[in-house]
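ugh ok fine here u go
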Amino acid sequence: MLRRLPILLAAVWTALAAAAAVGPALAAEPVFPPGTRIGLVPPAGLTPSGQFPGFEDSARKVTIAIFDLPGGAYKSIERAAFGEGIKGLTVRKRELFSFAHGMGFLFTGHAEIDGLSVYTYDLLINNTYTGKLGHVAAFVRVHVPDAAHDAYPDAVILAALQSVTFRVPPAAELREELLKDVPFKFGDMAGFRVMRVVPPAVAVLIDGAGDDPVDNPYVLVSVGRGAPEQADARARFARDLLADAPLKNVAITNMESMRIQNQAGYEVRADANGPDGAPVKIVQWLRFGSSGYLRVVGVVAKDRWDELFPRFRAVRDGIDLR
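structure:
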């Protein structure tokens, strides 16, 4: 599903009349995906997704994905949106867009995704607030296949986007409660705290007072299926996974197979640059099982590597599958 929903490396619009026209079809209150600060009033027919943060009509393949972004990621997306865009995506219009809590940039277009012809609506948000909410950078992407456009016309989608709103981030206790929805549990968080959980199989831990992974060390833990069984294929698999990290100039410095909790595993270390250009160091561990793998990735500023590496390893060694 995430492959189908890539983040864009892609006169104020009010739409008040459209909102009034479709108001009865929308729920009264915004809905927030678990653990996120961004919510909206989904159109009738869309329900919360169990595959990504957002909403979907699985029968019609209509999706609304909501991404709460660190500042560095927002800047990369904005550059892509106003620059080269994404192959296969045709942008019809770029414009300012007003919504419940501010202003953003709306990009409407058309694309071919996995052989499906879809209408696309991409809302980029970068708002600065005071108080507990703080800075909010977000990306909301809507995909409506051509065959579903009559059921979800522009007016309905624009009204939903106009309802985008924010809330104070969930308390740490709530975020940790969300861990019950992922297929692993932490025995030792090594001083990290839960920053975000993306059901069904991703959790992000972070160190420090803030929630921006550009400024703080973090650990990403996920579970996947379909890992190769042969040792040489596993090396390629590990290298390819790391190549997809949202970092710049990734240069592998060491790769080796190892046992992790008495299971076949693989470690990859690398140097890179973060979204802000600062040098970082990365470690990725894969623990292979009979039908899939557990992935643990630690990222930290280069000058803090010696301090954080033992903590990354403690997190890795304390993870058990449910």
